[in-house]
Structures are given as structure tokens and as C-alpha cells.
Design goal:
Its main location: membrane. The protein is mainly α. The protein is 79% helix and 0% strand. The chain has 17 helices and no strands. Helix 1 packs antiparallel against helix 5, helix 1 runs parallel beside helix 6 and helix 1 crosses helix 10. The longest helix has 34 residues. The protein is globular and about 60 Å long. The model has no long low-confidence stretch (mean pLDDT 83).
């Protein structure tokens, strides 16, 4: 026993972990909604804007952080990341909030992005490992819920604080700093993951007996079950995120430049979209994910996403089509690839490299978003939004087919049961 304080467990622990998703997603939206304000204030050229977007929490910053976080989480435990990651995040947020030149803003963006990436694999891993088998989707869905609430509130704040200009943006980052501090305080009494602790003892015993080889990351590619999981998870998450991730930065731009909306109208529309995602995450994924056929639930969200982009791409962009798009996409996102990726990626790998696998895949996905985010505005300018929309639709159809074809049969099973079914009685060690 580490000290005499009462440990934080159950739903309270889940909420303490999930709150990180609020500030992580909030950081992405806060940066995106204030990009033009910083550009005007610091006279940032197009190269500087590209650096900010590509190294942010939406792209390479988070990608690198996820690689680091996955390794630390599996090597040293889940708890150590909870103690230090948010301190780094708060330091980065302070840099951004107080920036008065471009190097300071860029440094804060990189630090925040890495901190966001570090937290992703440990959050989903810890929640899944500590959740009851009959409530795993509900518990993992809490992280997705917080991820959706972050952008919703941040967009609403952007609308309310728009008259204050850049000072309003600094206040948005201040609110993220405060929430991060509260979350860090709530996490102080989290216990180590019991599954990880048990697996560590087992691994040490095996190494002591010297009759079994130590597992390594190469198992991710040498074992067929791992390759199948990687195909599924990158297939749904990368291709869905090539659309969704680009939307995180460019939808306000599309609303304004293609649809003719004002900045305030664009932010309000995005806030409404995220509100729908919050509702369907709670009433759809959290309430039904442990009870109904997951192939059906995933497929429903995927089809709704494709229809949303068909409407946005091929119909005139007016208020009717924009509302239809927002309703369909916002609702689909709550039961879509993000939620199922968070669930399945925590179920389909063994404990000793579960977070490492997540970190590696998250790195691949976020790197893909960084490349596509660079190409997208050029594609829209050179060819048209319609061409870009067709590419988005192709991405979504690919993720739909992969997800429906490869949905795993894990609902209601313990992680130990899933591990035994996939790897055999003697887990690779």
C-alpha cells in the first residue's frame, strides 16, 4: 500500500481519466478556432501556419507523443503517466496562452501536442482494463463523451468570446489549464492497473524461470492475430480520421469559404454538430455498445457518415443541406470509428504491449492526418471542394467495408477471456 489515502476507483476513476479527453480535444479546437487571430497578431506566414497545424495536437505532435506514451505505459505502468502528463500539458497551454511571439506559440503548440498524444493510449487502456466486462463499452464511451464535450464547449466559448478577439482565445486556453489542473488533482489517488500489475509479476516470474522468451513489439507483426487487429483498427481509424481529422481544422474554413457563412455562424454550426455527437455517444454507444450487435451499431454510424458527405459534396451548400449534414455526421460520430477504435484497440492486444500497440497505430493515423491536412486545402483550391469531397467519401466507404467485414466478437467478455481466445491458453510472453 502506497499511502493511507483512499484510492479512486469505479466510475469516479473512469471520469478522472476521461476528463483528459475533454482538454485534449479542446486544445485541438481552441487552436483551430484561433489560428487566424494568431496569424494576424504575429504576422505569421503560410509556412508558420503549416508548422502550427502539422505539429499540433491534431497531427504530428500527438503522433510522436502517442509513441512515447505507449512505450512508457507498458514499460513503467499506467499510473506514472497520470502523475506527470498533465503537468506537461499545463506547461504547454501556459506557453500558448501567454505567447507574444511565434517561437513561443510554436513551442507551446508542440509541447501541448506531445502531451495530448502521450495521454491517448494510457487513457483508453486504463479505462478498459479497470472496467467490468459487461460495462466496457460504457466506460470507454465515457472517454469518447468527454472528447465530444470538449469541442462542443470550446466552440460555444469561441462564439461567446469572439468580440474579445485574441484575448478571448487566451481565455479559452485558460479554461483548459484550469480543467487540466482539476483533472490532475483528481487523478492523484488512482491505483495502478491491476491487470498490468498482475501481468508484470507473471512476466518477472517467467524471466526468472528462464523458460519463456520475453515478449516484444515485434510480436505485433509476427503474430497473425495481431496483424489482423492492426488491419482492422488502422483500416477504420485511419480512413475515418482522414475525413474527421481534416474536419477538425478545416470545417469552419469550408463553411465560410464554400458555404458563405460568417466565422460566428461556422463555429456555432460546429458546436451544434458536437452537441449531437455528445448525445449519440451517451444514448447510443454508452447505453447500447454492451448490449446490441456491435457490427450493426458500427455499420449504422458508418453509413450515416457516408450519406452526410454525399449531401455536403453533391447538393448546393445552403442552410438545409448544412443542417442535414451536421445532424447526420454529428450523430454518426457518436457511434462511429472513434468510439469503436478506443474499445477494440484495448481488447485485441495482450496486456504487456496493449498501450504500445495503441501508441504505434495512433502515430500512423495522426501522421496520415498531417499529410492529408497539408494536401486538402491545395486540392480544394486547385480542383474544387467537390473533388475533395469525393476523396473524403472514398475514405469513409473504405473504413465502412473494413469495419463491417472484420468486427470482432468481444462484447461481454473479460479481457482475459478475449486474450485466451485470441492467443491460446498460454499467452505469448
Amino acid at each position: 500500500m502506497e499511502d493511507g489515502r483512499k484510492k479512486t476507483t469505479g466510475w469516479k476513476a473512469t471520469i478522472a481519466i476521461a476528463m483528459a479527453n475533454y482538454i485534449e480535444a479542446g486544445a485541438i479546437i481552441a487552436a483551430a478556432s484561433s489560428l487566424t487571430l494568431w496569424q494576424a497578431y504575429l504576422n505569421i506566414d503560410s509556412v508558420g501556419v503549416g508548422l502550427l497545424s502539422s505539429l499540433s495536437a491534431n497531427a504530428l505532435g500527438a503522433a510522436v507523443g502517442a509513441l512515447i506514451g505507449g512505450y512508457i505505459t507498458d514499460r513503467f505502468g499506467r499510473k506514472i503517466v497520470f502523475h506527470y502528463d498533465l503537468l506537461v500539458y499545463m506547461f504547454g497551454i501556459l506557453f500558448i496562452m501567454l505567447s507574444f511571439n511565434f517561437p513561443m506559440l510554436l513551442a507551446g503548440t508542440i509541447i501541448t501536442g506531445i502531451a495530448v498524444g502521450v495521454a491517448v493510449p494510457v487513457s483508453w487502456t486504463y479505462i478498459a482494463e479497470e472496467a467490468p466486462s459487461k460495462q466496457r463499452a460504457a466506460r470507454v464511451g465515457a472517454a469518447q463523451l468527454a472528447w465530444s464535450i470538449g469541442p462542443m464547449i470550446t466552440f460555444f466559448l469561441a462564439v461567446l468570446l469572439e468580440p474579445l478577439g485574441l484575448f478571448g482565445s487566451r481565455l479559452i486556453f485558460l479554461h483548459l489549464f484550469i480543467v487540466a489542473f482539476v483533472t490532475w488533482f483528481l487523478r492523484k489517488d488512482l491505483p495502478e492497473s491491476q491487470i498490468w500489475s498482475d501481468d508484470k509479476e507473471k512476466k518477472q516470474l517467467e524471466m526468472k524461470e528462464a523458460n519463456v522468451q520475453k515478449s516484444s513489439v515485434k510480436d505485433l507483426f509476427s503474430l497473425k492475430v495481431n496483424r489482423q487487429a492492426i488491419y482492422l483498427l488502422i483500416g477504420i481509424y485511419l480512413f475515418w480520421n482522414l475525413t474527421s481529422g481534416a474536419m477538425g481544422y478545416f470545417m469552419p474554413y469550408i463553411y465560410e469559404n464554400v458555404g458563405g457563412l460568417s466565422n460566428g455562424q461556422a463555429n456555432l454550426l460546429q458546436a451544434f454538430l458536437w452537441m449531437l455527437t455528445v448525445l449519440t455517444t451517451y444514448f447510443g454507444f454508452m447505453k447500447l455498445g454492451d448490449k446490441v450487435n456491435q457490427r450493426f451499431l458500427f455499420g449504422l454510424g458508418a453509413v450515416m457518415g457516408v450519406v452526410a458527405w454525399l449531401i455536403l459534396t453533391f447538393m448546393p451548400m445552403n442552410w438545409v443541406t448544412l443542417i442535414l449534414f451536421v445532424v447526420l455526421w454529428g450523430s454518426a460520430a457518436g457511434i462511429g470509428a472513434q468510439a469503436f477504435y478506443a474499445l477494440w484497440t484495448s481488447e485485441l492486444f495482450i496486456t504487456r504491449y496493449r498501450a504500445t500497440a495503441q501508441g504505434l497505430m495512433y502515430f500512423i493515423v495522426r501522421s496520415g492526418i498531417a499529410v492529408w491536412s497539408f494536401i486538402l486545402p491545395i486540392l480544394m483550391d486547385a480542383l474544387s471542394f467537390t473533388v475533395a469531397g469525393v476523396v473524403m467519401i472514398i475514405f469513409l466507404v473504405i473504413h465502412l467495408v473494413i469495419g463491417i467485414a472484420m468486427t470482432p466478437n468481444t462484447r461481454g467478455k473479460t479481457l482475459e477471456q478475449i486474450e485466451e481466445e485470441r492467443y491460446g491458453v498460454s499467452t505469448p510472453s
